[in-house]
Specification:
Layout: H1 10-15, H2 23-37, H3 52-61, E1 66-69, H4 76-80, E2 90-93, H5 109-118, E3 125-128, E4 133-137, H6 144-147, E5 149-151, H7 153-158, E6 169-171, E7 180-185, H8 192-196, H9 199-203, E8 220-226, H10 230-233, H11 239-244, E9 247-250, H12 257-267, H13 279-292, H14 307-327, H15 343-347, H16 354-359, H17 361-377, H18 400-407, E10 412-415, H19 420-428, H20 433-440, H21 446-462, E11 466-471, E12 474-479, H22 480-491
Parallel strand pairs: 1-8, 1-9, 4-7, 7-8
Antiparallel strand pairs: 2-3, 5-6, 10-12, 11-12
Amino acid sequence: MLTKNKPRTLGELKKSGWRSKTVKEELRRNLLQKIKAGKPIFEGIVGFERTVIPQLENAILAKHNFILLGLRGQAKSRIIRQIFTLLDEYIPIIPGTLLNEDPLNPISPRGRKALDDCGDSMQIEWLAREERYHEKLATPDVSIADLIGDIDPIKAAREKLDISNEEVIHWGIIPRTNRGIFAINELPDLQPRIQVGLLNILEENDIQVRGFPLRVPLDMLLLFTANPEDYTNRGNIITPLKDRIDSQIITHYPRSIEEGKMITVKEVTHEGVGVEIPEFIRDLIEEVSFQARASEFVNQQSGVSARVSISAYENFLSNIERRALMNGDDDYFPRMCDVYSIIPAITGKIELVYEGEQEGSVLVSYNLIGQALNNVFLKCFPKPTKDRPRAEKIDDNPYEPITDYFSSGKKLELSDTLPFAEYRKRLDAVSGLRDVVKSYFNPDNEREVLLRMEFVLEALHQNNMISREVHDSAIQYSDVFSKMLSGMGGMQ
């Protein structure tokens, strides 16, 4: 046991030279040591190195209670759940007390009595830092009794105590986190009358229970999180409470595709296949979230969580695994048609405005994928265009052999369940498709050539050069003008 060589009595504790420190002093000292040593403060937090983390460090060094304000999926909970790692590994407490009391400075009648009765022979225990962090999700049904405490008449009757005795109080979760860190998630969801109960804790560091003439000095760091949308939709933070929260730190989404990919890779929980995913496919899946955060059909006040990319990537990997098992060919390499398996991860996680609702979540998701695909495509290949001066040679339009293939009335049907041999055969049948890929990219393996061939077809569709139809899991490419004419004939 890690505490076996630590003092076991108050007398031994005094001889060891132990000095009591407040929680905020602990955090400040340990943070300074980490900064000096150049050690990372937070694990798994990407993209906040020059924005959020310096503000967090300043708040801790200033001994501030603080709130993290940001949209959904911006790592607010992950951050606050790592603050406890800056606490000391262990602290001494008086056993049998509910408030994690300091043996050198007890604050409850039970703790003071133990000190008076035993003196330096009083037994002590050591509390690990993991046990010094608690959090509560704010919901409308949270009460003062839950957070702070209330009189327990059953306890009074059982132990034959007067109702005015401090021992009849049933302590809430905040006092029980004394000498630790307490966090409230989604603070605006807490009813205003309950928020009032936090004022004394933030300003005077004490609590009152049902008008008891008592003062229980608490030592803790208080953390909060909130979503700006909640300020108008579900609740508000009362002004006196906002005034008492020392620092407000605003979080944000990843600023670049690279940051987004790093977050996604760290968070993906998919197990099973160790497939090799080309970098441009990772870019494409991440780009979908970036497109959603700029889309006029998506409610930007609600935000687009990083969980969209994470869930999308997991669905993508699962579709590859499912196809390989169905075909029994061990082909775990991705295809472009696998990308559309991410739609269920998008539709459930984006909140649409009225215009988006009219379009429908599935169509909006298809459009987001198309926009993302086109953005990534233009980083690798020239922009497809219909307009070309007559004097230009065919080489100036590398996609013309492909569009001519479909203009001749031919079609191509692919699906995410095609065996590899058939998949390759159908793609190779399209004139000029392999040549375009090899003109701008020279992949190491045949599977990536085919993937990029399919990528070119998708991009030509996004630029209205060829038509594309989806029938269940099958995708059919054809000539765009023939499709338009057939549609007009159907109208007649």
